[in-house]
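Below is how a single chain appears once it has passed through the pipeline. First comes the sequence as given, then the structure the pipeline wrote out for it. We keep one example in the README because the format questions we get most often are answered faster by looking than by reading.
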Amino acid sequence: MTYTAPTRELRFILEDVVAMEGLKTTGAFEELSSDLTAAILEEGGKFCAGVLAPLNHSADQFGAKIKDGEVTTAPGFKDAYKQFSEGGWQGLSFAEADGGMGLPNALGAAFQEMLQASNMSFGLGPMLTMGALEVLTHAGTDEQKALYLPRLISAEWSASMNLTEPQAGSDVGALRTMATPVGDGSWLVEGQKIFITWGEHDCAPNIIHLVLARTPDAPAGTKGLSLFLVPKFLLDDNGEPGERNDLRAIGLEHKLGIHASPTCVMEYGGNGGAKGWLIGEENKGMAMMFIMMNSARLGVGAQGVGIAERAYQLALEYARDRGQGRAVDTKDYPAAIIHHPDVRRMLMTMKAKITAARSICLACAVASDYATHLDDEDERSRAKAREELLTPLAKTYGSEVGVEVSSIALQIHGGMGYIEETGAAQHYRDARITPIYEGTNGIQAIDLVGRKLNMMGGYPMTRLIEEMRETVEDCATSSNPELPPIGARLANAVDTLELATEWLRNPQRDKADVLAAATPFQSIACDTVGGYFLAIGALAAQRLLKDGEETGFAKDRIALTRFFAEIILSTIPGRLGDVHAGAALLFSLSEEGLGA
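Resulting structure:
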């Protein structure tokens, strides 16, 4: 159950597929170089593989414990968190002026993948803190930033996001938690929140909760929500944790997976109300929360890729060791199951989809860096639009690949995969939450077809399709005979994506039909865009071959892309009918029929 960080693959995608070093043109990352990227990935990989990965299985068995409102994390977590903090990993992509390393968000996303792969339950804590940091950086007051940013960036303190309530899940406007002004600039927050990741723990001396609440006389629905900073311990005059705030964890959720992540039921108030401070403007809480959620959605995509990578590595090791039957390409008996074509198909499917999803996540992160650091306002807007277009794809594809790959890993293990001691079952259990939280994948699809396809007059998707066609042409004209067939398969997929996009953009299209098409369209978009980035990687690999560099790596990269093109991209034209099917088909079976 060991884990090896895929540092070479991450570096290849960052440098040769999504071109992270181009960010130096913004002037924000003048020190960025291939050597620096390699060093960060190498050190981050060592920490994740050497410190966190060995705790993964034992922590899952121990879980998190609660007594009298205090949560004890799994053995080893406190020391691991201390090492995480000392390494400065929380602040990797935050400004040096605030105590961070000042490196690109794309490099931070690569580290997040390794973090989540090594120990997803642990990695959830820093991921939530990352979202809170994004909110404070963009919307906090100068005083809030001075008090909280340095301690959160250093991971001395952690943070949580408090949105969901028993009656308010995806329907956020139904939440009831109230915040009442005190008169001195503070507010008293009262209410109950559920599913609060790392809402209480023993790894940091203070936890900064970001709580969505309704203020007196606020409008109904989401327009009446505000966001509040509510610390576990109020700060004294020296900025140190002092008096305990009126909040506590009143329970831990019993979950299918991520057992070592303390998922809390949090109660605010009970003795007068928990003291908090408004972040941003009153009644603008959803705008504040979406800053955090967009960061978290990319994080969940990277999380899905990470758990898929961990499951794949375990399955590959098992396939090399497990002997069963005779195989066509070896005289060994029993043959290691990696020699059986069906197992080989499963392994290649796993690796190809991981690579495609990883590329989408890192491309989304690079777009976010450009959106933050470009000087020209129009260029910055276009980069932001690219980030927003890729965000639902990154979250959805990363999380669905995590579930699919961890499921295939169980299949490769056979009956042993169903036994907890192998570790394969844990990966499947852990992965299953990722398509659900931070906005279900169905909601991501609705966001994609309802807003992202039409923003800026449809420019982001139109431009992405143009770029994909340029890559098709590059493949078609390559001297390597493996590349033109890749280009042909990609061309058909892009044509299908464009037809589906035009169908959805038709202003006469019934809204119900658009909603019915959302998930199948998103699936087509994920596979097509994933195939596009794989094709870019194949072209880069061909350049390595010409230069005589890493020929084994380059040949394998092209072979993997050819597999994806023939097995995944080839199916996309046949999936257009799912987009066109319409809502009437989905409702053709009565409710009584569904229950029969």
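The longest strand covers residues 187-197.

See the next section for the split statistics.
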